[in-house]
Structures are given as C-alpha cells and as structure tokens.
Fold this sequence. Notes:
Blueprint: E1 2-5, E2 25-28, H1 36-42, E3 48-51, H2 60-63, E4 71-74, H3 85-90, E5 94-97, H4 103-117, H5 120-128, E6 144-148, H6 152-163, E7 167-171, H7 177-181, E8 186-187, H8 190-196, E9 199-202, H9 216-221, E10 227-230, H10 239-247, E11 253-256, E12 276-278, H11 287-306
Parallel strand pairs: 1-2, 1-3, 3-4, 4-5, 6-7, 6-9, 7-8, 9-10, 10-11, 11-12
Helix pairs in contact: 4-6
Amino acid sequence: MKIAILDDYQNVALGLADWASLGADVEVFTEHIGDQDELARRLAGAEVVVAMRERTPLPAELLAKLPDLGLIISTGGPRNPSIDIKAAAERGVVVSHTGYLPHPAAELTWALILAAVRGVPAEERSMREGGWQLGIGTGLHGRTLGLLGLGRLGAKVARVGQAFGMRTIAWSQNLTAEKAAEHDVTAVSKEQLLSESDIVTVHLVLSRRSRGLIGAAELAQMKPDAWLVNTSRGPIVDQDALLDALRERRIGGAALDVFEQEPLPADHPLRSLPNTVLTPHIGYVTREVYEVFYRDAVEDIAAYRAGAPIRVMPVP
C-alpha cells in the first residue's frame, strides 16, 4: 500500500503516530503543491491520501487522474469543502475524517486579540531593533466583544472575554436568546453586533450562507477603532472590501489567521499593512491536535484494510 501525507509543513507526521504498524510505503509531502497536474503526477499509485484539512483541494478533475486511490482521510472533523466527496463516492473512493480539538483555535483567537489591542508585533520589533515604547495600547475591561457564531469555539472565546470583564454579545442566523443566555451572552442582531462591538470575532462554518458575510456594508457599520478577528475561514470576509477598509483606516485593524488564498502569496497587500496582525492559519496547529489527526488517520487506514467500519464523511 502506498500512502501519501499531504502538506505536513513541519515534517512531524511520522513522529506523531505509529505509521510503521501499517507496513506501508508512506510518502510525506512537506511542501504545498498547488499545480493540479504536478500533484496528480506526484500522487500516482497512491491508494491512500491523508489531507491536512483544506490545505490542498481534491476536486473531481484531480480524483479522475488517480485510478489507484481508494481512501481519502481528511483531518479535522466531518467537514471539508475542498474535497469533492460526491465525485469520490462515484469513483468508489471512501472519504473518512479524523477527530478534532476545538480549544487551540479559541486560544489563538485570544493571542490575536491581545496582540492587536496592545500592539505586540510592533513593540516586539522595536525591542529587537534597539527601541523602546512606540504606542499606547487599549484595555479590554468594559469593552464589548461581538461573536459571529456561538458554537463550541465561540462559546470558549466568550468565556475568556467575560473573564477579562468584557460585555459579550453574539449573532448567528439560528442563534436564540435562550441559547446565548446559556453562555451568559446576549443575542443581538448582526447590525447591532457590528455597530456596538470593539472586537468582532468570526466563529462560523464556511458555507454558501456565510461566504462573503462580512463585506463593505458590514465593515462600514463597525466602529472606526474596532478590530475584526478571523480564525474561522478566510472567504467569510470579503477580502477586497477588508483591504479597502484597512487602507482607508475605516476600522481599527484586522487580526487574521485565515485567508481567501492559502498559503497567502508573498506579495499580498495584507502583508504590508501596518494595522494588521497576521498568522499563517495556525489556529489548530498544536501537538495535541496533530496527535489526534495522525493517530486517527492510522486507525482509519488499518480499519479500511481490514474492512472494518471507519468515520465516513456523508455524501452531499
């Protein structure tokens, strides 16, 4: 059996699970391959592909070029819009998924918020360059934290905000006042959330309804000193509209871990804007999460070979 592990940027996959127990030929791809023809060539003969979440799309056109493929394992839970699950099913390819831990992304959300309001990136650079204090930070106590989405991740972020003494409000299309109250959060309209929040943080699943949810009109409703934080998915925010708002300083800034195109191009204008805090989609990149991903992947491959049940993604 030939197994391909995609997008292992840190080259840690083989050390975090017992791949040797499979007795298979395992190839690790540490660099992202964006060209579909090149990817098809490199994956030729692979019976199993382990995909790191949505880093590499696996569309129908690519799957058609991989006749030996029998199993795709998507790390990170039962959703992956970058895999054409229907096309895989039509070709007899099983698509399974691993478990996931939500708390690391919530932790990174707060790393970004604190870095943004206290100017940590600029102050840190100044220290390394021999300087000292540059600006004046903003406190969080008494401020308003607006959560777009109050699921498992959003609720964790809300609890930390409450510990800082923040007012917490939330909106999503199906959020009720009763559900929000379970987390000591007030449910509000989207318009109220955007206009009243000092920090707007995104915790929604990417779907047809949420794609482009935050556009020019929504950004215009935010306070001129408010920060937008996104650790969910890049396309939920209209990138062009966000760039305009940042350049014209119509909002305080944006702290982003996710982007419309990933990896973010080296010359992308977001990289040069001073009112941004940027991280390379590391919300889930912790040892604990990766151990779950690769352990479950090995278990699924062993079960697949044995004809035993595995965690199969539903076909849309």
